[in-house]
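Attaching the record inline, Q. Sequence:
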Amino acid sequence: MDNKTVFYKREKEQQNETRVVLTEVYEALKEKGYNPISQLVGYIMSGDPTYITNHKNARALVTRVERDEIVEELFKYYLETPQD
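Structure, as predicted:
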């Protein structure tokens, strides 16, 4: 059994795309009156894109990005943003 750690690294361009997609999907969900955080969590946990509205093409946008990339972006933001 190999005990070496596997490194996972995404390109900067992919990170930027993920951030843009999340922002646009968040805004579309908010505009439609949904709780964007709950809907995004439902999508990430289940993989079911019907958690995301079609408004402003949000469902198609979010499926362009892999769910693990979304989780990575969220962890990165949460852990690297100074907390008050």
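The mean pLDDT is 89. The longest helix spans residues 12-31.

More tomorrow.
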